[in-house]
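User: Here's a chain of 194 residues. Predict its fold as tokens.
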Amino acid sequence: MARTVDYQRREAIVQRAADHLLERGAVAVSLRELAAAVGVSPRMLVHHFGSREKLVSSAVREARSRQREAFEARLAPQADLPYADVLTDAWRWFATDEAQPYLRLFAQVYALAQAPDSPHAEFLRESVLDWLPTIEHGFTADGADPATARELATLTTAVLRGLLQDVNATGDQERVLAAVERYAALLQAAHTPR
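Assistant: Prediction complete.
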């Protein structure tokens, strides 16, 4: 008779696996390495998840959930502060030690997700669509009409994603922060709420 899955235990394994992936900054880990990191046998990981890929996907989703939770509060509109300034302040979080594990891990997942038949293919779409409503809400709260807020959210997501790739490739935080500040200034100059 097959053993039933203990969902509480499964969730604890996902949490520890997410911790390990964030610490390593990589999804290319063996089943044995994951088992050692989470404190269970490889056989039990297969029992709970069916495969290494399913466990890694669950752990990546958990890491993304943690990042969203940390970053959404920073992207929330603030009274008496133009949303462009909120974006600049939020960007500064990316330079912190707290954010770096997410950036390293997600840069690798983003690259792997582009390969044919990647188990991370949905990550590409979700990593954009997750942020659009939050940023759109910020522009709406700043006085933009819904259509303009959606366009600005799309543009902002693309700009920030490109700048993240830049800073990941070069490590030049100062130059990229200056670009973020310039983008925010352009937003403020172009966006006059009606």
